[in-house]
Specification:
Blueprint (H helix, E strand, L loop, with lengths): L12 H4 L4 H7 L9 E5 L6 H12 L2 E6 L5 H18 L3 E6 L6 H5 L2 H5 L4 E6 L3 H4 L2 H5 L1 E5 L5 H13 L8 E2 L2 H11 L3 H12 L5 E2 L2 H7 L12 H15 L3 H13 L4 H16 L6 H15 L4 H14 L5 H14 L16 H5 L40 H14 L4
Parallel strand pairs: 1-4, 1-5, 2-3, 3-4, 6-7
Helix pairs in contact: 9-10, 9-11, 10-11, 11-12, 13-14, 13-15, 14-17, 15-16, 15-17, 16-17
Length: 419
């Protein structure tokens, strides 16, 4: 079912449309189009290999495919040497397609540069990782970056229906109800290749006729979420998770938690992020959030999966529903910024350590008044160095229990003679 022309490609209109850069290249009769290298960036099943093959087919170039998982510098140099010979003898261009180029080291990617710069090969590289991190800048600067998106549900459904009727697919021997198509689309999660694989597996043993929802469910236990513990999805999903908790959307937070757990994410990583979140985004608005998050970390280590999902779900729900404040987090960062700016003056003598004779000679500790000896337990004194005496780092919000902290702080500042 791999498309044989650009017009058969479903989805990726922003990349392959008549006015899009890649679309123009794939429809151009200009021989120079065959010499433009590209980096195709997108999740699995979005058409990266197909588009590379179509580019080679359209330009009449030789097509050579390597996988960065199984190939190294030796294989790359062999292809480049053969491409140079072909070009010299026949004038024919070679399109070198490297799948998962992010798995090539910097040294391996460097080996491609002379071939691309001298036009010995046209490089089409595919990656599921952010090219800014996965591809060296020298290759990126010589290539057209083409971002690809997960294929939309309607477009995946179109591919499924096409596969049912096309001689290259199931050739009209099977049918699917709209409900079954919708179920298959949900399981595919934007991955056309997965949709076709499930469809083919669902047809096994039937002979012909209707493929039911039960047939589909029997062929695959459940949807496998798109996820890579070392790649973009790892960072994107945890980012969405944190932002959902911060935004107090408990349902979205639980969805992203489930997504990570189903994909096999380390639950200790999730728990660590929750501990940070408890101080960064909830802080003084609900100080019970932090010990609860720490308890979740301990429970995960003690219980393990799959039971640890229950504790994680419990604590995520609490954190999402808790009042939010970042004022404690902002306060420490503001204090650090002042220290880094050089605002770290002399510590007042009464506050210095007076345990040694040398320190006492300097007057360390003299004049210090012990707050516990005072009627109200507070001594009005300038505790901060002169350089930051007028700084107010902690500015409480009115959210949750921090409103009480605001009242306490106002009372303390008045007793300490702080304006």
């Amino acid at each position: 079912m791999r498309p044989q022309s650009i017009d058969e490609v479903v989805g990726q209109a922003s990349a392959t449309g008549p006015d899009a850069p890649l679309g123009k290249l794939l429809r151009s009769s200009d021989p120079q189009a065959a010499q433009i290298s590209m980096v195709l960036w997108g999740p699995p099943g979005t058409g990266k290999t197909t588009l590379a093959m179509l580019a080679a087919q359209h330009t009449g170039a030789n097509f050579v495919q390597l996988s960065a998982v199984t190939s190294g510098v030796k294989e790359v140099r062999e292809v480049v040497d053969q491409a140079k010979q072909t070009q010299e003898l026949t004038g024919k261009t070679t399109v070198l397609f490297i799948d998962e180029i992010h798995r090539f080291s910097k040294t391996q990617q460097d080996a491609l540069l002379p071939a691309v710069e001298n036009g010995w090969v046209t490089l089409i590289a595919a990656t599921t990782e952010n090219p800014s991190f996965a591809v060296i800048s020298a290759l990126l600067s010589r290539s057209l970056l083409v971002p690809l998106s997960p294929v939309g549900d309607e477009e995946v459904a179109e591919v499924i229906r096409r596969a049912l009727d096309d001689p290259r697919g199931l050739d009209g021997r099977y049918t699917l109800t709209d409900e079954s198509v919708g179920h298959l689309v949900r399981l595919a999660a934007g991955d056309v290749r997965r949709a076709l694989t499930i469809l083919e597996a669902s047809s096994v043993g039937i002979g012909s006729g209707e493929i039911t929802r039960a047939d589909i469910e029997n062929s695959v236990a459940h949807a496998v979420p798109l996820y890579d513990r070392d790649g973009d999805q790892h960072y994107d999903v945890i980012s969405a998770f944190i932002k959902s908790v911060r935004g107090s959307d408990v349902d979205a937070a639980l969805h992203y938690l489930a997504r990570m757990l189903e994909a096999g994410e380390d639950p200790r990583f999730i728990a660590r992020r929750m501990i940070i979140l408890a101080s960064e985004d909830i802080g003084m608005a609900d100080s019970q959030a932090l010990p609860l998050a720490v308890a979740a970390m301990e429970a995960v280590a003690f219980v393990g999966m799959p039971e640890a999902r229950i504790t994680l779900g419990h604590v995520v729900t609490y954190l999402a529903l808790a009042p939010k404040s970042n004022r404690a987090y902002v306060a420490i960062d503001a204090a650090i910024a002042d220290v880094r700016a050089g605002l770290a003056g002399a510590i007042p003598l009464p506050l210095r350590d007076s345990s040694t004779k040398s320190a006492r000679t300097l007057g360390a500790g003299e004049g210090y008044r012990y707050p516990h000896n005072e009627p109200n337990g507070i001594v009005a004194f300038q505790y901060a160095p002169d350089e930051v005496a007028d700084r107010r780092y902690y500015e409480p919000s009115e959210h949750g229990r921090e409103a009480q902290a605001a009242a306490v702080l106002a009372e303390l500042n008045s007793r300490l003679n702080k304006s």
